[in-house]
């Protein structure tokens, strides 16, 4: 079950593309959802973190998931209200000419 869930997230494929060796994709998907709701994943990650900390093998890593982090509209490049400014025209340089 864990391998099936890991395969799905490593590949980014749709659930329906889950290889047959992992079983029915609906069963894997439903198990993932059940474990998310009942706190199984939280318990597993807490236990793994405690074990790594006890073994002094813990390296802290921060992961930011963009599905839950939102930027303000101005940070995303949205323009302010009103017409766009006209683009500046380019004029040739008045530098020396080849002679």
Automatic annotation (TrEMBL):
Region annotated Disordered, chain positions: 72-99
Superkingdom of the source species: Bacteria
One Pfam family hit: DUF4096
Residue intervals of the Insertion element IS402-like domain: 1-44
Residue spans of biased composition, Polar residues class: 87-99
Name the record gives this protein: Transposase
Organism lineage: Bacteria, Bacillati, Actinomycetota, Actinomycetes, Kitasatosporales
């Amino acid at each position: 079950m864990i391998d099936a869930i890991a395969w799905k997230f490593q590949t980014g494929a749709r659930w329906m593309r889950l290889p047959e060796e992992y079983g029915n994709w609906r069963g894997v998907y439903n198990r993932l959802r059940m474990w998310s709701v009942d706190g199984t994943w939280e318990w597993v990650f807490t236990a793994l973190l405690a074990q790594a900390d006890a073994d002094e093998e813990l390296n802290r890593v921060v992961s930011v998931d963009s599905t839950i982090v939102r930027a303000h509209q101005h940070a995303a490049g949205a323009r302010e209200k009103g017409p766009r400014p006209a683009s500046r025209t380019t004029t040739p340089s008045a530098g020396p000419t080849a002679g």
